[in-house]
Amino acid sequence: MLPRKSIIPEEFGLPGLVSRMPRKPVFRDRVNKARFIAKNGSCNLAHKNIREQGRFLQDVFTTLVDLKWRFTLVIFTTTFVSSWLLFAMTWWLVAFGHGDLDPERRNGTHCVTDVKSFTSAFLFSIEVQVTIGFGGRMITEQCPIAITLLMVQNIAGLIINAVMLGCIFMKTAQSNRRAETLIFSRQAVIAVRNNHLCFMIRIGDLRKSMIIGATVRLQVVRKTTTPEGEVIPIHQIDVQTESAVPNNGLFLLAPLIICHVIDKNSPLYDLSAMELQCSDLEVIVILEGVVETTGITTQARTSYISEEIQWGHRFVPIVTEEEGVYSVDYSKFGNIVKATTPLCSARELDEKPSILIQTLQKSELSHQNSLRKRNSMRRNNSMRKGAGGSLRRNNSAQLTTQKVQFLTPNDTSQNLNAVT
Question: What's the catalysed reaction (predicted)?
């Protein structure tokens, strides 16, 4: 027997409806990967299996500057103490060879007066190298070798002082110290500006001394695969910013919003709001400039991964004019608010400009509806308050119209007689 046909057509049945329902794209949770640049600007990169370690010793000064403070102080102290001990041993050998340690010798024949032991030789070495000269121990003209040793120790001491003090000075005046007061917003935003999707961040300088010739560079780091099958784990793509003017720098007097227009040349051109949250990319921001007070070039860095990019938001204004002075409220530096933004990619927005118009119209209608609801709620509240006030007035009027009669004992007796 042939199967009976259903009264309901197949396209309106449950299987047909399920097949025609729009399915949301399913994205797998991406594995948490280490970011290339940390939020504080440090490079999250480990160097392994370096065989040519001798290259670091060829540039000793840079190696000393790059060391941590505890190692630098240990090397600083060890270098000076070692040089004092080395020359103390040399002075003791000179005195021993000349016979100054013999107590029977007269004072006039000594190379160095009052050097009678290794301790006194060590004290004399310190006095020579740091040019203290207490006056008890001094060199004489009896020994030419002592005069030569004096010149050698002075030259060696000057070289050690120049290297060590220069290293300490460079560590205290490093350019990254100035970068500590150059701040970035914790989050980046994507919103519509001038009818284009834009990627925006906020930068600022906490010091009053300015950064001369400040420039901002943006790079997108992502893992890509070439048509030949080559995998590039760190593919850096330069991103053009709207404020990047050739041969001119940023005037970083107040916090600025750096804007990148997502156009055809942007690596974010094909990403929608949903795809952005599941993408594996990192936007690196580099701020460079010359410190006004020291003239040293400084660089501040940060990065934003997909979880730190908020779609459909913009930064709140933080610069206001108060009594003829512009005031910056840094407590709102990273605050963002929602903005009307299509969830589609910039490519779809360029192909269908009506999407932006429809989104703006929907937001305007929702805004008007919210205003109407607020107005109606206010009217209802005012009417309720008015009705409650009228009821209170009526009740009070009734209470005031009622008269209370007070009866005396005589009146009560007369009333009772009349009743009987």
Answer: K(+)(in) = K(+)(out)
CB count, 10 Å around CB of 16? 13
User: pLDDT, tens digit, for every residue of 95-130?
Assistant: 888 887 776 665 557 788 888 889 989 999 999 998
Amino acid identity at 46: A
| Mutual angle of helices 69-98 and 144-172, in 10-degree steps | 180
- Is the whole-model pTM more than 0.85? no
- Number of other residues whose CB lies within 10 A of the CB of residue 364: 11
For the four alpha carbons of 32, 33, 37 and 42, in that order, the dihedral sign comes to positive
User: Please, are residues 328 and 319 in contact by the beta-carbon 8 Å criterion?
Assistant: yes
Cα–Cα nearest to 258, from 272, 245, 246 = 245
DSSP string covering 170-203, please? Answer: HHHT-HHHHGGGEEE-SSEEEEEETTEEEEEEEE
Q: Which amino acid is at 342?
A: P
CB 342 within 8 A of CB 356: yes
**What confidence tens digit (pLDDT) does each residue in 188-231 have?**
999 998 888 999 999 999 888 888 888 899 999 888 888 888 88
β-partners of residue 196 are 193
Architecture of domain 55-172: Orthogonal Bundle (1.10)
Q: Is 207 helix (H, G, I), strand (E, B) or coil?
A: coil
Per-residue b or e along 327-344, where b marks 16 or more CB atoms closer than 10 Å to that residue's CB:
eeeeeebeebeebbbbeb
Residue ranges in the chain whose pLDDT is less than 70? 1-33, 103-108, 175, 243-248, 361, 363-371, 385-420
What are the extents of the domains in the chain? 55-172, 178-339
Q: Please tell me what DSSP assigns to residue 37.
A: B
